[in-house]
Amino acid sequence: MEQRDIIILGGGLIGLTLAAALDSSGLSCAVIDPADPDARLGAGFDGRTSAVSSSSMRMLRTVGIADHLLGPGCPILEIRVADGLAPGGLSFAPEEDGEPLGWMHENRHLRAALRARAEAGEHILMCWRTSATHIERAEHGVTVSLEGGKELSAPLLVAAEGRNSPTREAAGIRMARWRYDHAAIVSTLLHERPHANVAYEIFYPSGPFALLPMTDTTEGDHRSAIVWSVPGGDAHGWMSLTDEAFAGEAEATMGGFLGRIRMAVPRSSYPLGFHHAHRITDRRMALVGDAAHAIHPIAGQGLNLGFRDVAALTEVLVDGARLGLDLGDAQLLERYGRWRSLDTLMVAMSTDSLTRLYGIGGRAASAVRRFGMGVVDRLDPLKARLNAEARGTSGDLPLLLRGLPI
């Protein structure tokens, strides 16, 4: 039986980030995932992208993941929020330190960098193409049996399996969850005019339209990613449009300010939902990422919430190891639960409230929203707080999110 400090179930973006963070701090881990990693690294761009906040990028640099990225990504230098195409709205820009609000990365580049970092990790055991056949979380440790007969043991098990985590369900952790009557259409557009590194969140009663700046193609074409929330019943119709027709609708929705629009990659669609775990720890177990919480993509914070879980859990475990504590100790895990509970709940409720608020139709509701955004735009302390939320720099920030090694 092979002994590790932590066993991680799930080798996605969050699971591999946690492995890198633990490795950089000298803790050993095993990552178990049934997927074939080679199948995730296709040369073609499938249109899936992620907005990585400035604080999350600090962590990716600190734990050595950024060293393996194929490119620096596209910096977000401004965020503009508008109620439809009406004048007025909110605008957020970098603070005095000049650090971008975030960076846009293609998911395939993030996956490739994470895999390379994991394979280079001195303390990381990768167990691809296999699943746990039996998990025992006992009083004195965790034992995991894998397909093929291999056995692993550790003081702590971390579930990073995504929103349908079987380990969370087996533990009987209650969830608050609901479905929105919306689906997200995701793709990347080519546009005539440069985006000037501006991200747009345009709210319509039918659903928000997010436009996120991407790096230009090697041919010099300008690109932006979109996350377009449409009524669930209309998603099939939107997906069945020709590329030319869909590009025309997108151009009209954004008011044509980026000029002529063309599709860069095929569209994909997925239903939108919310869930939040009643607790994110159990006996010798912790939840991270979508296994713990999933929110509406309205503010692009879902992945960054998972990165914040990683930073907090790593710091808690490293502190515990230095004190000679059992890494599965209930009091140690309680510290992680307390640290993350308020932040995740506040972000989840904020995104849910925004989704419902901007879904109210009518001129009166739109006028009230525009008035409110104008007030916020003139109140520097409140605007600074919202700016910090966008950058992921609010609250009790773990060391890795400050760019400091643990």
What does this structure look like?
The protein is α/β, with parallel strands linked by helices and 406 residues long. The chain is built from ten helices and 22 strands. It has helices spanning 13-24, 54-62, 107-120, 166-170, 235-240, 243-253, 302-322, 330-357, 363-378, 380-391, and strands spanning 2-3, 6-9, 29-33, 49-53, 74-76, 78-83, 90-92, 102-106, 124-128, 132-138, 141-146, 151-154, 156-159, 175-191, 198-203, 209-214, 222-231, 261-263, 268-277, 281-282, 285-287, 293-294. The strands form four sheets. Strands 6, 7, 14, 15, 16, 17, 18, 19 and 22 form a nine-stranded mixed β-sheet that branches. Strands 9-3-2-13-21-20 form a six-stranded mixed β-sheet, covered by helices on one side. The radius of gyration is 21 Å and the shape is globular. The protein starts with a strand and ends in a 15-residue tail after the last helix.
Walk me through the topology.
Elements: E1 2-3, E2 6-9, H1 13-24, E3 29-33, E4 49-53, H2 54-62, E5 74-76, E6 78-83, E7 90-92, E8 102-106, H3 107-120, E9 124-128, E10 132-138, E11 141-146, E12 151-154, E13 156-159, H4 166-170, E14 175-191, E15 198-203, E16 209-214, E17 222-231, H5 235-240, H6 243-253, E18 261-263, E19 268-277, E20 281-282, E21 285-287, E22 293-294, H7 302-322, H8 330-357, H9 363-378, H10 380-391
- Integer tally of domains: 1
Largest sheet: 9 strands, mixed
Task: Count the E strands.
Answer: 22
Low-confidence stretches: none
Q: How big is the Rg? A: 21 Å
Q: What proportion of the residues form beta strands (DSSP E)?
A: 25-35%
Mean pLDDT: 88
Give the CA-based shape: globular
CATH class term: Alpha Beta
Instruction: Please report the number of helical segments.
Output: 10
**In the CATH hierarchy, what is the architecture at level 2?**
3-Layer(bba) Sandwich
| CATH homologous superfamily designation | FAD/NAD(P)-binding domain
Tell me the span between the first and last alpha carbons. 29 Å
Percentage of helical residues?
A: 25-40%
CATH topology value: FAD/NAD(P)-binding domain
Computed structural class = alpha/beta
